[in-house]
Amino acid sequence: MRSVRNRRLFYGAMVLVLVVLSALMPAVMRVSVAPFMYRSIETVPPAQTAIVLGASVVRGKPSPVLRERAFGALELYRAGLVETILISGDGRERSHDEVIPVQDLLIESGVPEEAIRLDRSGFDTYSSIHRARDVYGVESAIIATQDFHLPRALYIAKSLGLTAYGLVRPGGETWGDYLRETPASWKAYLDLSFTREPATSEEEAVNFLDW
What we know:
- The protein is globular, with a radius of gyration of 19 Å.
- By secondary structure, it is α/β, with parallel strands linked by helices.
- It has helices spanning 2-33, 64-78, 100-108, 125-134, 150-159, 175-179, 181-193, and strands at 37-38, 49-53, 57-58, 61-62, 84-88, 116-119, 140-146, 163-169.
- A hairpin with a 2-residue loop joins β3 and β4 (61-62).
- The strands form 2 sheets. Strands 1-8-7-2-5-6 form a 6-stranded parallel beta sheet, sandwiched between helices. It has a two-stranded antiparallel sheet with strand order 3-4.
- It has 7 helices and 8 strands, in the order αββββαβαβαβαβαα.
């Protein structure tokens, strides 16, 4: 009987250790980029481009999370902190286009079309930032996204050599949003470790808990 109880305690302890170790990656990312995360637009340093990372759309309109990211870029542009806005997301299907609805929202809000650049092959955060650097020539950027997502996005940008800052936007504050960052953060770490080339087609794209 004692042997069975001891085995259960052992397995329980192993599960706990694995959970703690898994949670270390998003924690490490958050600590490493914390000095570059800003919650007020008045304190954000200027940069070349604001990056709007993709998220879900609802009946052809930006979801609340995506809308807040777009509004963050809009505020940065209006404040003169960026010269251009790069919208990067999954633009493979008209029914789930994460790019054009954000462009429409920004143009309706007064951003000139020539100040907006579109990346319809930003299938995940790593791909979006990698392509921002290599395809669109971005050297410095402000990423406007939610608190759960920003540490990973900034960590990727810094690791890829960009001068990057982050503006925290409202939304995405559930436990589920933070929990899903554990596998997504490990995926980003592996992408960086193996210098994965971004997907450029539907066949190559694999979106694993990433938005």
